[in-house]
Design brief:
The protein is α+β, with helices and mostly antiparallel strands and 382 residues long. Helix content is 58%, strand content 8%. It folds into 3 domains: 107 residues, no CATH class; 152 residues, VPS9 domain (Glutathione S-transferase Yfyf (Class Pi), Chain A, domain 2), CATH 1.20.1050.80; 112 residues, Ubiquitin-like (UB roll) (Roll), CATH 3.10.20.90.
Amino acid sequence: RLKCLGKSQCMAFSIPVYDYYAILYSYRKNKEQRPLVLLHDVRSFLTDIKRYLISNPHLGLVKKIQKIVNYSSTVDVEGAVDDALDKLVLYPLHSLIYKCLVIDYTRSGQLKDLEEAIALAKTKTNQELGIRDTVVPPDAESLSLIKGHFAQLQRTYSPYFKLKELLAAVTKIYQSIDDGSSKAIGADDFLPLLVYSIVHCDFVAADIEAQYIDGLLDPALLVGEGGYYLTTLISAVQVVFSMKRKETSLPSISDLQVVVNNWHLMVGINATFLGNEDSNKRLKKPDDDVVLHKTLHVPPAMTARNLCHMITRKFNIEAPDDYCLHVVANGIAHPLEPNECPQLVKMDLLTQFSATAFYFSYQQIKKEDNVSSQTGENILPE
């Protein structure tokens, strides 16, 4: 059905599709463009077109999908639309996007650096890789299966199926440890084991694949386990890189966890919740000042609008249109524009403040916030 809509020149759906292909064609001719910009643009296009397809009553797409596949919930329908858009949009674009990433990584020298870092890491002992004496790393048979998942991850064009292959590799790592170690491992021990697996599986494309998934997957799917292990993969690659830069043993386990946390944002959520879906979560009543603090996976290209949407869905926020994301610096809350990227804002603020001098807050919109937004006033400190 989506293919028919895309091929029909007179349909409202086909117009943005053809316009977007024109933009991509111009991107191929412009050598100044960065791959992360392309990833951000493609993800934004997929989000916008999915919203249009689901919300447009004239298309009647939701009812048609429910009738064909017998889905009843909106979440299942969104998944079906995501899958169809991946086939319609990402499948023909996969080679272009991947080529742009490879060219950028090759030009910057990162691909060669990672290859050399992996070769260097192979000369290190398990202890130098951060693996404790009581933990037995995956054996040759397990590494062969893990490598198979990494290979399949590289073959598929869908960021969703890439993430599934990553989680399958993670599961195999845990299973191999359960078979070989005297006791189950905790999260602190997993990162060195993922580093070990990347190194001994020669997963040179790990960083490229992580950026592809991070940039193109629906942000709502990066909540929870998927987002955590994708962040761990990105962190593991940075750990391998650090070996070549320093040509020393890896940082301590506590240092490795800091790397993981750097890819998350701590967000204070000051809002009224409709329901308590998390047994550890404190509900905020309208007449108290309880603020829920949560660490969320926020990719560099995720916008404030998408982060707010993720918070709304994850925590079941009442009246989400009354709230927006703010950055609080020097005790003053500044609302972010919907298209601003919190991670980029964070990087900019770190050049002016210490990491403890500001934080992000999801809170109610004030009247003066709307005035600043309408007048185009710069709400961030200079």
